[in-house]
Amino acid sequence: xxxxxxxxxxxxxxxxxxxxxxxIIIVALSLVVxxxxxxxxxxxxxxxxxxxxxxxxNGNRDADPVIPSPDKRVAFLGNLGxxxxxxxxxxxxxYPHALQELIRDAxxxxxxxxxxxxxxxxxxxxQDRTEPKTIIACDARYFDxxxxxxxxxxxxxxxxxxxxxxxxxxEGNALMxxxxxxxxxxxxxxxxxxxxxxxxxxxxxxxxxxLKGIGTAGAMYRVQRRxxxxxxxxxxxxxxxxxxxxxxxxxxxDPDGGYFYWPTSRxxxxxxxxxxxxxxxxxxxxxxxDDGRVQSLSYEDFADALAQPENADFAAAWRAxxxx
Length: 324
Ligand SMILES: [Zn+2]
Hints:
The chain is α+β, with helices and mostly antiparallel strands. The chain contains 9 helices and 8 strands.
């Protein structure tokens, strides 16, 4: 009986509507109150309470929420200094390209891998490494309003914000100062990127373009540096060959950038130099080769390519990075 039930239904709706409106207002007000409560909570008790909010965004999702005490951080950096000295003895004085290179020498590799995510490292230039006060590694952020530093002479120290900022203006630390700037810019871009992640876009084409951009930047760096490859991607940003956006493909979720990079010591032999980090794409990875080529490889083909002798260095670094 649609003709009779329809008006009755209509009438009931009319009768209920003032009450309904009241319920909606009450629910909305409750939601606002709860929302304000959550906001107040977040502001009063930020998850990393000792971050001074100086703009160093910690987008590190799997970071340990318990920040080690300054003593422990200083001890870790001291240990890092010793590991670096051993590494240099074994590698003709070369500094590691990235701290990941030291993982295989760590006692507890898993803990080490996690810990170095909160350490900022900048391989010193030839000139800076002879200046004993040059900071080569430090806490990635201020913790307890302090930054612990490792210097070129192997000494370690916990510095207040003022003393750290002052140290950055001193001789030998211009590159570290620039590195801190660049990493903060990349993380800010990474945080914005993560928020917008998943929006529609030509994922593959964009990623290939980004990797080609990295290849071009690397080639320009080589021309300027008598054919020496850039030790890491951040150096390409420090020297303005790239902008922070260049490090993120549409699928990246790592706030430090979506690409793994490893410099090749050989010349134009078709070795891999950069690729998508795991999780960027469901079906495989885009890979940049040292001759500027970019290829989309399935996970299987990627594993095959890693096993090629010319990619041995890249493969070792990749495994250290991935923890496999
Ligand atoms: Zn990608």
